[in-house]
Amino acid sequence: MPPVAFIIFSVIMLVFGVLVVVNRNPVASALSLVVSFLGLAALFVSLDAYFVGVVQILVYAGAVMVLFLFIIMLLDLKAEARRKINVVPMIGGCVLTAVLVLQLVSVLNTFEPGKKSLVEAPLDYAAAAAARPAVPEGKSDTIKRDLRENKLPDVRLLGEQLFTKFPFHLQIAGVLLLVSTVGVVILSKRELK
Amino acid sequence: MSNLLYILIFLPILASIAIALGAPARLSAIGAALVNLAISLFLFASFDSTAAGYQFAASFPVIPSPEISLSVGLDGMSLVMVLLTAIVTLCAVWVSPKQVEGSLGLYYCSSLLISAGGLGAFCATDLFFFYAFHELALIPTFLMIGIWGTGARKMVAWKITIYLGLGSVILLAGLLALFINLGGKSFDMATMQAAVAAAELPATTQAWIFLTLLIGFGILISLFPFHSWAAPAYASAPTPTSMLHAGVLKKFGLYGLLRVAVPMLPGGINTPLPLPLLGEITVLDLMLWLLLGNIIVIGLVTIAQKDLDLMLGNSSVMHMGYVFLGIASYNSIGFSGAVVLMFGHGISIALLFALAGRIREHTGTLTISRLGGFGKLAPFLGLTFAFAAFASIGLPGFANFAGEVAVFLGAFKGAGTEITFLQGATIVALWGVVISAVYMLRAYRSVFKGEPHEGATMPDLTFSQRIPVLILVASLLIVGLYPPILLDKIKPGIELIAKAFAE
Amino acid sequence: MVTLNAYLLVSGLLFAIGFAGVLLRRNIIIIFMCLELMLSASNLSLVAFSRFNTVNGLPNYNGQILVFFIIAVAAAEVAVGLAIIVALFRARRTTHVEDMNSMKG
Amino acid sequence: MPSTPAIILFLPLAVAAFVLLASKGFKLNATVCALVSTASVAITLVLSLALIFGAKSDSPDEVVKLFTWADFGSLQLEINATLDRLSRGMLFVVTFIGTLVHVFSLGYMKDDAGKARYYAGLSLFMFSMTGIVLADNFAMMFIFWELVGVSSYILIGHWYTKDSAADAAKKAFLTNRIGDFGFMIGILILFGATGSITFAGVEQGLTAGVLTGGLLTAATLCIFCGAVGKSAQFPLHVWLPDAMEGPTPVSALIHAATMVAAGVYMLVRVSFLIGVSENAATIIAYVGGFTALIAALMATQQDDIKRILAYSTLSQLGYMVMAVGLAAGEAAMFHLFTHAFFKALLFLGSGAVIYACHHEQDIWKMGGLKDKMKGTFATFAIGTAALIAVPFTSGFFSKEAILEAALHHDMLLFLCAAGVALLTAFYMTRLVVVAFFGKARTGHSDHATEVPMIMLAPLMLLAFLSIFSGYSIIADTLSPAAVHSEFNLAIFLTSLGALIAGAGGAWILYAGKDKDPLNIGIFRNKFYFDELYSVIIKFAQDKFAMVVSAVDDLFIDSLCVNGISRAVNGFGLLLRRLQSGNLQGYAFVFGLGILVILYIALINT
Description:
The complex is a heterotetramer of chains A (193), B (503), C (105) and D (605). Chain C contains three helices and no strands. Chain C has 105 residues and is mainly α. Chain C is elongated, with a radius of gyration of 18 Å. Chain C starts with a helix and ends in a 13-residue tail after the last helix. The mean pLDDT of chain C is 88. Chain D is 75% helix and 3% strand. The longest helix of chain D is centred in the last third of the chain and has 48 residues, at 529-576.
């Protein structure tokens, strides 16, 4: 990806991120967040993380943000009435953020490994294919085949890792989702007994 | 055989679980207490009084390093304490009401758990469980006072909990210091005792640890000036809790001093420590001053009480001073006296609280001036209260007397013609015998003698209510008339402890 | 060409924007959105690290798997969080954080 | 087969337990209980006589081991029976008077509701008193010493619904406790110094000279404290007159003949101690003499028949203690022996009078009883004669012995003793004249009739002994100690003169009078000792206790304990401020924390 595209998507992402914060209307904020996530997804794609990029759009920009909008509609939130702005917390928050950014810059300035560009870390499909272990006779390795064909089997590689190295964690995540589902159902009941 | 002690400890716990699961509360509790008493009596009968060291020992490893194991065993001293616990538990459960506000099950469970904690602490030969079991008993005490107490029960419950919790923390610090200084490898008491000689701790270190233990245990025993939790707590607590705590649990601290501090810190008692405000003072002298505070100051405080329950609570604080005196005498006579006195005091104070509780149940008050002539209205109550009062002020024929005499004789054993601070303190402490007679007889005179107040009623105890009272009276009398029944069992173990610092 | 630091900088800025939102906004739903921004910013860092630390010519997929989990957890969090907000709104008729101070000691 | 001393000692205890259990638990008839109790004491009397007559004149003193009460390894506390002339004789006195009192009580307490309890108390007392007599060591002595106090407490407070009786019982017990406090200290000092608790062991230690000087005097005086309490010597004499609230037979047994004499007995038992401590002996003698004098003075102005006798007992006990202090222990024991009979006689006689007058005790409400109660009057007169030492009665011989000892040692004490003899004659004559002579002053005494035989018989037996127990034919065998003093004209004349002066003076003053011509407030009010003590108790104890209690409450509980808790509470309140409930405040602090950590972790390195 050329630097121009990187800059464009980064700017989209950041600008709409700022809009999320400064918009007085929650619906506008939510929509800004969707756009910001789209920019983020593009950056993921620029990093060859196609699956994550797609998930970001599907889950975040799609499902989660719909949920947000739903709730905003449900609660019928109007634009916030102007309240008296508390100066001290406001300044404090801004200063803290500024300091954070400053720290970030100073750390990145001295972060040597971060100075290499994408060109210096090229993807090498042939080497990757060669590094894969041999499969038993009669079975085929689709990942290897794809790599040989100079394609990045992104989803397959992720899935392979997920199911071979982290199956337990995956199940825990599943349980977590189940629990949260139950929790939400209970919380949403009108009369808590 | 060796599993008997586990049964003894865990039976009350199992019974509480059963009650929690819906078993009839009173029946299960009395059943468990009866079985426990039977086991204790069996242990008592089959105890070999010629052998020193722990009997019925058993061990169950929990953590290999540092070595913690649920090991149990009895020597004469713990045997007596176990017997005391079993007797008082049965009586405390028996006098518990058949109906209470709230959960009856919790009421009985609490009593059983206090008992289990006491039994565990007395049986344990592992320092960790020795401590842990006592802590177990504090929680139900808090619940009982907080839920079923009278008067300012919440305040009192918090006070006792925080106070005893503080004492426990100080105690824990002392025990850990001892543990680390004795090698820090095993919590087994016998192993630690064996390490004493090799460790060769500097006398000052020993003295500091002893002081920490004295304060820690002292708070649990209501040693002056850490006594102010005791009387209000006993006055406020429901009857079975007062009986169990004053009768049994409070003895844990004294037992601990004799079991841990005295034999494992042989050089700690006579080494001067530079203390703030007090200057250079040995732990022994400090202990003597404080026990005089218990006996004389609290004795006078007791005289000034206007309520029977507060008076009994304070008297129990006061009498702890005599047990301390027995420990301070540092010879086997004094130690034996201390153990017998613990037994006698435990039984007599439980009896007094049981009878006072009965009066409160009926009249709703224990203010002495509002009671009178109960001897005529309820002769059995009057007679047994007299027995308990006589026992409490140390008259011959009751277990307390045997203990007190031994304590006094122990303090003078080998004194020669020099009157040191120990002997001087003993003479002052003797005045406490007069003081306790004053408040006890005054209260007895006002409550039980004379004509009853106009319109006053007091039903006498029913047959079923008499049984626990008679058990307690009988225990006092048997030991009082023939002390060797306890002394013979205590002797080998006590001599072992006495030998530990004589060397 | 684009360096790792560039990605990290962008990610950090996004994080800072989210952080500022959390500190400055009073509407709890917007605060919640800002939290999502911060999570996403960390995702970007992870993906960037994953891409730049190649293993045998491929991105290090461990990083992306972490992102996957973060998204899963975030989804759950959003669901529960929004349910709580709804419950709160029912009780208090407000989404303003300054009105939610029953934890004040 | 248990030995004879064991039976004598433990039979009463068994009976006491039996009576208590049987009457309370199984509702056994109270009269049966009374008879069982009486029978048991009669058995002990027979056994004591058997001990006396079984012993040959030259048989050595022995100690019969009964059982070890407590074994501490390095120290054994044993319950033993020491058998020598002293204990055998004392045993006879105790069981003999005990038997008579039991019998007398069968009549006196016939209709009492608490008869079973009364007899249980009597049996318990017999057990305790026997224990004191048989003791061969200080521990055993102390055990039974305390038990005697208990049984006395029970019996004085027999009519416990009566406030005065309940108070008297409490007073007696507490006063005795103060004496016991000293007694115990004395025992402890002796034990500490000699390492022994037995009389023999302590004597051996003292002979070896391990304990001398001030500490020995202190120890002796501490031991004496026990006697001061039990034998009601000044300054602890106040309980005895009040103890007359108990049933009259109890007064005869406990507060005249036996228990109060236990102090004297104990002093004689430990006379080796007094022998080596001269200063203490002098103090003891003077305390005894002083008590004898003030008690006699107080007796002259009392109106209650039993109180007169009580003060008379005090006075006679003072005599005995004085004798002990003058190293005339034998004279003291001899007087104890004779006094036991005639004082028991007088008390039982007064009991008979009270019984006949429907529990009237004021002598000014009696009068003219000599014709209505001939038997009682005759025996009472004999008792009086013995008490005021009419020549050739038993009291004459024993008092003579004491006077002789006083004459040889200390002129002041001799004069004091002679004065007491005069006063004794005076107040006893006053009592007899007012109560028995003249005419009946109230309906009660007018309708009095002779008491039944079961009450009269013990009186007669005692009257016989009051006259003859001083003669060597009885005294030599039965008495714990007999003194045959040489006839001394000076003493004879002094005592005769005192007798005539006292009795004659009283006759002249009181014959035919209906109210007391004398009114000496200080005697009548017992030198205000009771008032003084109640003030002392009120201030030194009750007020002091209140102050201590208040200090305890304010300083330790409120200031130290609750103060700490308040400090903790205040600190908590302070920390509570930080808990603002502001979500973003928390987030701010949180972020700040992260920045600080980042700074430390990444930049500062």
